[in-house]
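In the previous chapter we treated chains in isolation. Here, by contrast, the input contains three separate entities that must be folded as one system, with a combined length of 939 residues.
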Amino acid sequence: MSWTRKHLLDIESLSPEEIITVLDTASGFKDVGKRDIKKVPALRGKTVINLFVEPSTRTRISFELAAQRLSADVINFSAEASSLRKGETLKDTTRNLQALKADMFIIRHSAAGAPHFLTRFLDAHVINAGDGAHEHPTQALLDTFTIREKKGRLKGLNVTILGDVLFSRVARSNIWALTKMGAKVTLCGPVTLVPKIFEKLGCRVTHRIEEAIEDADVINLLRIQHERQRKTFFPSLNEYTALFGLSKERLARCKSDVLIMHPGPINRGVEIDSEVADCDHSVILEQVTNGLAIRMAVLFLVNGTRVPIEASA
Amino acid sequence: MSWTRKHLLDIESLSPEEIITVLDTASGFKDVGKRDIKKVPALRGKTVINLFVEPSTRTRISFELAAQRLSADVINFSAEASSLRKGETLKDTTRNLQALKADMFIIRHSAAGAPHFLTRFLDAHVINAGDGAHEHPTQALLDTFTIREKKGRLKGLNVTILGDVLFSRVARSNIWALTKMGAKVTLCGPVTLVPKIFEKLGCRVTHRIEEAIEDADVINLLRIQHERQRKTFFPSLNEYTALFGLSKERLARCKSDVLIMHPGPINRGVEIDSEVADCDHSVILEQVTNGLAIRMAVLFLVNGTRVPIEASA
Amino acid sequence: MSWTRKHLLDIESLSPEEIITVLDTASGFKDVGKRDIKKVPALRGKTVINLFVEPSTRTRISFELAAQRLSADVINFSAEASSLRKGETLKDTTRNLQALKADMFIIRHSAAGAPHFLTRFLDAHVINAGDGAHEHPTQALLDTFTIREKKGRLKGLNVTILGDVLFSRVARSNIWALTKMGAKVTLCGPVTLVPKIFEKLGCRVTHRIEEAIEDADVINLLRIQHERQRKTFFPSLNEYTALFGLSKERLARCKSDVLIMHPGPINRGVEIDSEVADCDHSVILEQVTNGLAIRMAVLFLVNGTRVPIEASA
């Protein structure tokens, strides 16, 4: 194991060895989820703050369960009913929480860099649960874990990321993780959402879906956030679906063992056909299962605990 | 014990033996509530999702405490801040939660049949905490438990259910439970809220309160939901109270050992006089206590655990 | 130890010996916060209801963590989504919660006297977490703890409370605690917010900040609640800051070992300069740490538990 980091802030700064350490640790924790008693005492007596300044039920619950299964105490802190509303700064809010002897902060924030900012003045461990359009490292780790588990390797695979790349932290973190691990990444979507400049990150950029999917081993779809639809970026949802939706017809032209991924929640009939979401190629729900294992691994590793992963007494 | 069901979806499909099994199991758990350490390890390491798509503080807390006292991990999932808001289907939301290795779903939903729907695709246990105007099985079980405890039997008792029967899942579940156990059920309330068709369920229907209460061993009052008052069903709250409210005067004409019940929250001065709610006949708060025991019993039984009910180490 | 009370409702009725008992007990619990496993089994199997009818994230979390670290089960009950909204009385709501075998109620309420009211009909322990403008006893205890820890004593110290005294429960509880412990209390702020009548509580009242701070050993600043600004009490925030804000210049004229305190959340640039908040005199974050220890001590003492404070097995 080669893990010495106090925080998990991004994928960009991780080495391939560190990524592998997280994936290998997560394998062990995935087995815990299959036990009758799905709990280990690794973080017993530790306090984890789930600080979701930007709302997210599913990621919050995944982290909450991860902490519970490591036997930590968890405090959910959402922005809505909080002192942040009364005008307190993020710095003051988090220093106050740390003064309660919190050991770890899991933070989601609409501002890129918010988790890094916390590390400047907090002693606690900080885990980035998504910061603006910057990074969402645990999502990329769980995606990478899922691909490795299904394909047996990462090196040399063709992975296509399809959709709203420009505003997607999931895309950015995946690009970092996959290229570090030797996969070949293709980005595809409307010109307005997938600018050529992403080639500088070592990706292929195309705006023709046929080109993007024909030799893909993995297609990772991004959610079209139609509830905050960006009118200026594409004319209509229908047009998006027609040009970039993953339909049955398009799936039929993919490799026979292509993996379909999506960080969720999916929009059935928008970026993905309902039948495609539920077909054998889809590993969307396994991503969720693996996300829990990845988050347990991350909490465990940053804590630096030496306790072996064993069943609770 | 004769319990082999994976879910608790309704009372309608239960046998009298199954109802008795729940009541007997709940007796044991009621004793746990009297201990100094009110916890047993029966569901240790299990994850229970409290999925309240329709809000309810008191039922949610009752289930939350029931799960805690069985040592389960509980996740509260309310509709407000969730992916359901982003347009995700209930099926996708619950399958995602199950992918986190949730063991049980406790669901309250405004749509009748929602819990049954979940069982079509979830492997987890499903417990109905109220679905539309259909059923609220744990409420009926706790009511039945309370009557049996106070009266020593159910068979042959006259039980009157008074109020908004038409829209009440509490009424429907109670009708099923009580008639199965051999009690005689009378329904009473305004013609618009207590239609004659309910006689098909084996009940007596009357619209004169004097007739409904004079020989009742138990009067179970339903809440008039005046915060969403149904203008078309009765002219005014005052008129409802005059015609169907349980006043001191009316109580004086009841049997001397009549039991007054109410699922709560009560509207003092509307369906029940304040003094009646607090008099010796009232077992409203004991219903709450018994509800916790019933919910512990239900979680325990559907889990199929073989662990004896004993104090945690 | 001289603690026989079932509740903690106010500071006014406490004896100096009782205050000392809380502070001494809190010292032990502060050490628990430094351990690797920050948990003791003192309240295992007890149910604590965090009943925040008036919202407060930080105090709620402090109590929630205090209960968790004593191994209690905690239910958070906020007014927003509750039966209180449906018109249920506070009495009925809390009696229902108690029927679930809740052992302790921690209540914050906008009405002065709400915690005392609960003790009239509840068997459970009641802890006042702030009632209207009346009292906030755990805040005064943590303030007193912090002063005693830093100064080694309370007797004879000059403590200045600065700001919106009129509407402050923090001020009232501090006045009671400090005068009982032999400190000399000065109150300062605008005439409208610091009326002369407070002299009857044994305090000095002045409206000139220079006079209030020059010989102060401790300055306890109160938050200006500008989000609900009281237009009739002072002309503008700027004027308040000019006349009563604790600036660097004013701090320079204080005693060289003055302690700067604030119950938080602070308004940087309003009642306190940003640099003053972060300077060596400031113990604002230590107050937060001590608050957790005080709350653990209070929960422990009212519970009357005889279990020694030792690490969980």
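The longest strand of chain C covers residues 125-131. The beta strands of chain C are 47-52, 73-78, 104-109, 125-131, 158-162, 184-188, 204-206, 218-221, 259-261. Compare these points with the single-chain example from earlier in the chapter.
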